[in-house]
Write a structure and sequence with these properties.
Its main location: membrane. The chain has 192 residues and is mainly α. The chain contains nine helices and no strands.
Amino acid sequence: MALLILGLVLFLGVHSIRIFANDWRTSQRARLGENRWKGLYSLVSIVGFVLIVWGFGLARQQPVVLYVPPLALRHLNALFTLLAFVLVAAAYVPANHLKARLGHPMLAGVKVWAFGHLLATGMLHDVLLFGAFLLWAVVDFVSARRRDRADGVVYPAGTVKGDAIVLVAGIVLWAVFAFWLHGWLIGVNPMG
């Protein structure tokens, strides 16, 4: 469990710098240069991610049950993850209404993904992983929207074409991940 927690602290910690230490981040980017800053940021993120994966795998070998969710919540989680994939796609597809409305659809997608998984799983390691990501995404979303308002950020208007691309991309990516990759990468077949 310690590796999982360390990974979460590193990964979410580095992704929280802009929330809690934006002035420090700005000064470090200026001092180190953009490329060195991004390199260090990426290195810490990758180390944190590897520790999360490794720690989660180890924690799954000695599960601690906190609660047993009803089977229906596992099915509901499939809908939550579908919505999460659509929201993440909206972060990358230009001129869509989700991006125009939310500003940060990836963070919204992380919130939905984490919440759905908290409903569907009940082990301590699950609650640590998904609870940490949910808390981080909520705080980061609020912080990012506050920065947007302070900076007068306006996102481009959405179009039907952008929305269609978001929906198709999100649904296709969700299906590939849910039906094939999740079982292969995570070891749990959510559709099986």
